[in-house]
Amino acid sequence: MKRTLAEPFKIKMVEPLRVTTESHRQQALQTAGYNPFLLNSDDVFIDLLTDSGTGAMSERQWAGMMQGDESYAGARSWKHLETVVKQLTGMDYILPTHQGRAAERILYGILGGKGKVFLSNTHFDTTRANIEFTGASAFDLMPDQALDLELELPFKGNIDLKKLEEAITHHRPENVAAVIMTVTNNSAGGQPVSMENIRAVRTICNNHNLMLVLDGCRIAENSYFIKQREAGYSDKTYEAIAREMLGLCDAFVMSAKKDGMVNMGGLLCLRDDKLGRECTNLLIISEGFTTYGGLSGRDMEAMAIGLTEVFDPDYLHYRIRSTAYLGEHLRKKGIPVVWPIGGHAVYVDAKKIIQPDSGSPISGANAGVRFIYQRRHPLRGGRQCDVWQIR
Fold it and tell me: Is there a contact between 226 and 198 (Cβ–Cβ < 8 Å)?
């Protein structure tokens, strides 16, 4: 097992955390209906809910924010962001949004509609919601072997090419609004997608005249795995690998709160002129003018800097190895996790830990872990759901 790494950065500022007692945390969980989304942040000592927009920014990002141009149109900060993103994507239409789901709503609101279908390796939850809100349907097409959570595969996030061809034939190409490749495959455990797989999907889309969208909020992480695991990429930079991925796609949707390394922001990038104009018009009436799209100038400045800093080799290696370090140690202690460990998070297989019918902890390697199964616990507002409490 590889050792973890020291942080390849110095910390210039600290933020105090409130140290709580176990009884305080138990009461806070009970008050929140055992739903972590309803907890007050002051009651959380170690926050592992998400990394989306919750991290610290760099010294260059903070310095850039002080130089942010807040002009309504044609701001310097917009020009900086546009230049960085065009160099990365090679696309002409660069539309900033306040976050990724806003970009999804614009794009899929235009492409979707009743009778339309979207095909993906795995749709993220907001992606599926925005698609289905239009009346369209979303289908996930992962390979069967990737559904084995313990099986070690280098690119477990790939789309099944045979299933993709069959789905296109079944639904008919004219009804397929787009094929969406999510990198890394978040809902499948943060698993990477190979360049070979994306290239094969591009060929299938060309054969059927279909649009290929890259949902690339973790494109730097996926580039890391391609460089480390795929033949022919060991000598390429992470940024060059990202540009190659984007070069295979017609559109790029991103929540910049991940690999943009900012606390708020998103992107929608397109090649097609007609679709680009349609999305631009919808952006103006819903997000803001085209040169700010719901973001302040300082936000765009920080995003432009973050989209270059994220490809730093030392940073990416530290980030991926730190995640793997946690997952490897959990697995060694008998906690079932999605294997191999993905990029941004460790996914625990809760279904294997607890027997849902009885609520009893399973025996064996996990016998020392205490669990409580809480059935249909009332949430605030009277709603009810099934919840798992790990103590």
Answer: no
Residue 261 has pLDDT above 80, yes or no: yes
First to last CA, the chain: 27
Across the chain, mean pLDDT equals: 89
* Domain span at 364: 22-49+349-390
Q: Are residues 268 and 297 in the same domain?
A: yes
Number of H helices, E strands in the chain: 13, 9
Crossing angle of helices 76-89 and 238-247, in 10° steps, is: 80
Distance CA 374, CA 388 (A): 6
pLDDT at 361 over 90: no
Q: pLDDT by residue (tens digit) across 88-143?
A: 999 999 999 999 999 999 999 999 999 999 999 999 999 999 999 999 999 999 99
What is the tens place of the pLDDT at every residue in 47-90? Answer: 888 888 888 999 999 999 999 999 999 999 999 999 999 999 99
In a domain, residue 330? The reply is: no
Residue 35: both structure tokens together: 């739903």
- 112 lies in the same domain as 186: yes
Query: What angle do helix axes 59-66 and 297-309 make, rounded to 10 degrees?
Result: 150
Report which of 304, 193, 173, 305 is spatially closest to residue 248, judged by C-alpha positions.
193
User: Structurally, how many domains does the chain consist of?
Assistant: 2
pTM: 0.87
How is 238-307 classified by DSSP, letter by letter?
Answer: HHHHHHHHHHT-SEEEEETTSTT-SSS-EEEEE--HHHHHHHHHHHHHHT--TTTTT--HHHHHHHHHHH
- Pair 103, 268: CB distance under 8 Å: yes
